[in-house]
Amino acid sequence: MPPTPWSYRAAVRLGVALAPILGLVDRKLGEGHRRRRRAADRLAWWAASHRDHARPLVWLHAASVGEGRQAESVLLELRSLVPACQVVYTHFSPSAEPLARRLQVDVSDYLPYDRPESVQRLLEALAPDLLVFAKLDLWPELASRAEQRGTSVALVAATVSPGSGRLRWPARRLLHSGYAAVRAAGAIAEPDAARLAELGVAADRIRVTGDPRFDSVAARVAAVAPDDPLLGVAGGGSALVAGSTWGADESVLLAAFVRIRSGHPEARLIVVPHEPTPHHLSSLDRRAAALRLPAPVRLSAADRPVPLLVVDRVGALATLYGAGTMAYVGGGYGRSGLHSVLEPAAWGIPVAFGPRWRDSRDAMLLIDGGAAVALPAAGTAGVAAMAETWERWLADEDHRRTQGAHAAAVVAEGLGAARRSAEMLVELISSRPPRKSRSAAR
User: 6-210+416-441 — its CATH code?
Assistant: First the structure.
């Protein structure tokens, strides 16, 4: 019996065939396809020249930046527990390349497409002792073939939202063989553990280890130097930092900013778009001008704090939250999903976001902890609620500081998941059964 159903293999082959065409209209998809085509060759070359079979090898996969940061905190703990291990890191999204280059791994690259020939070739070349998927980006062909050849398969930071398409037919049936191959899964919370069992992970192989994202975020914030130039340019005064914003978020924020400035001319707004493309930045300039707000100043051109600062590059947000006394997190007014609310919380500042937050466990924890405000739908009601929240933060410093302290407490309570996840992986490394022969997995 094949490790994955023929329908899954057919779907993958169709997707690979369509990728060049889809890449013509989606730049990120096209870039990923081009880089992925030779990934198996590059990884096989590394294995032939650098693989030390006297040392355990961990193959860690995370789809994109968010999953990669969760995986990084586990990786650092694993390195401290098993210093001798070699680590191969793969990702799926082009946005994860900068993160992959700075991780403490032996080699990093794109994950090749989940086809039998690519998977088998890499498993034989790398001979991993442990294959780890972060969050939920598990690939059935790779997972099931790894399990067949004696490699332990694990999930860390595993979370399954109630509305995940993986829980529905036909995805659930197509992916089942991969989840059934998992030997140990560290779920973020009990509901995630229950849904992992629905996907096919054996219930006795699931444990609740918490979310390593808390450790990752806390470490990033702790690493920011007090004299970081970004804090000097953006800091000072009562600044609201709006992170990972989209157009719908900015419409609410800019209109609320107009109201706030009438009573608090010292108020400042720092906007960090999720995709700071020239087109998006120009659109933001036009909307600010239409509302007669001060002209937005680009971060690349700023040399001092200004009323309206617009960040025109990526990678600065985690630091910039430290320049603010309050925060807004984008994504809650669109379909892209709410972005990370933990970064501002780790800085100890209160957070606001749009109405589409219920798929975010972190947002729920902040609301329950009295550290965040969820705004109503867009339009007049959303603008009024944002202005009211902003006004109270400016006028009532004790209230703002209390909410910020609650936010920091939520982050502190979540720490330790990375260590627990790494300890789970060490158990797998130390108890890994002997590998089957290469021919047995074919």
Answer: 3.40.50.11720
